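To whoever is on call:

I kicked off a structure prediction for a single chain this morning and the downstream step that reads the tokens threw a length-mismatch warning. I double-checked the sequence; it's 390 residues and nothing unusual in it as far as I can see. Pasting both halves so you can look.
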Amino acid sequence: MGTTTRRKFLSATSLSTMGVIIAATGINAISPDTAVASPSGKISSDAPQTELEDFVFDLANSKAGWLGAGGSAKEATVEEFPVSQSIAGVIMRLNPGGFRELHWHSIAAEWAFILEGKVRTTVITPDGSTSTDEFEVGDIWYFPKGYGHSLQCVGNEPCAFVLGFDNGHFSEFGTFSVTDWVSHISPDILAHNSGLPASALAVLPKKELYIGKGKIAVEPIPRNVDPNIPASYSSHKFRLETDGIKQEFKGGYIKVVSSKEFPIQTTLTSLRMNIEPGALRELHWHPNADEWQYVISGQGRVSIFGSHGRVKTMDYSKGMVSFIKQGYGHYIENTGKETLKLVILFNSPIYQELTLNDWLNANPAQLVADHFGLTLDQAKSISKPQRGIF
């Protein structure tokens, strides 16, 4: 980062939101109105003065949805949430007996986090092996793009999960579904390909099923039509809530699952975060990935910094999502009375972050003091690194 860019970062971020960082020094915060001023006191003529776009979307109340006897789905793609270019999201609910039919995605991998109930998945890999797994609250799955799979509610209670796709232009309602395909194939070709008699073909669906309603799935997992198909050696399941690498802080915790812990998750990193009432997820940024957040429960506030004095703050709550572009500085506050619970995706298989406290502490105290007009003792008293959530 060059000197000018670094100065602008510290100006805009520190002067608009640095109260958290410099409160302990006892100096007065500088007005945000001066955040974009150059050292000469003049606004840079080449600095764009456009505002940041909205980066929070109410996924739970999205109008882009599907509802049927077997369940429902609501989505947020770039059509509904333009800022989220790299990640699309869906909330799906399946009723007892409900299933998301056999399908595949040509342009996006699929990730999921279980919110309620139990889900059974089946997936076939390009080597012809198959895997059937059951997922409970807090578990995640990952299916590479092009892998055929299905989702099924298990037991007498409904299930719910949030889906993430590593392409913001991908629509869940534009998948390649098996019923959609066979309903547009001539009976002669289907009979030749499947070996089924004409009487069986007569009852096949005449259009895409999408979410169907069948018999209630019971445990244990039943055998496949062909029990000789080998099991997959590449696990699609990870227990994020119980097995994620946990970092505990004064005001909450973070659990990270990257491709290091979940090798098949090659395009995304998963993260679970709890922020306690009144706590702050410290000022930081991610140099290698966009960030997509889903609010499981609680209320919070996100503030992002996009250079050239562009800072925007938005509130969110249960069922809403936010999107933060790669490299944009940001922080999260819990503004409610209960724990703010988030599940977060990054469009990189490796997790990276840089915090403002880390950065400041990695510089000579006099240099930091000169940046902000602090005394040397005040600069030395800046919060030490790795505060995380406090």
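Update from on-call: the warning came from a stale cache, not from the record. Cleared it. Sanity check on the structure: The domain at 241-380 is CATH 2.60.120.10 (Jelly Rolls).
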